[in-house]
From TrEMBL:
This is DUF3499 domain-containing protein. Residues 48-103 are annotated as: Disordered. Pfam families: DUF3499. InterPro entries: DUF3499.
């Protein structure tokens, strides 16, 4: 409420609202407003972070497993035709490429 010089701090929004932002609990607790503004807090305490779900833990384990696997040699046929001279593609994941400058 800019015209009222009021900052309202409440629960996370369910829908996108213009001029509203979702904050983590650390930033919400430390929120300050410009001098002369009023801060209205609709909740006194923020809920604790939820424990990781089994899906979160599985995704983390999969990422660690993948990172621990040996690196594959780059496929020269998969390199982009516009690759700069002196640059070698070392890995690819989807549309992302890891490039290394040749010495």
């Amino acid at each position: 409420m800019y015209a009222d010089s009021t900052a309202v701090l409440g629960p996370l929004a369910h829908l996108a609202e213009p001029h509203s932002y979702d904050l983590c609990s650390e930033h919400a607790e430390g929120l300050t407003a410009p001098r002369g503004w009023e801060v209205v807090r609709l909740v006194n305490e923020f809920p604790a972070e939820p424990a990781p779900s089994p899906d979160d833990l599985s995704a983390l384990a999969d990422a660690v497993r993948e990172a621990g696997r040996g690196r594959k040699a780059p496929d020269p046929a998969a390199s982009a035709p516009t690759q700069e001279p002196g640059v070698t593609e070392t890995a690819r994941r989807g549309h992302l490429r890891v490039l290394r400058a040749e010495d």
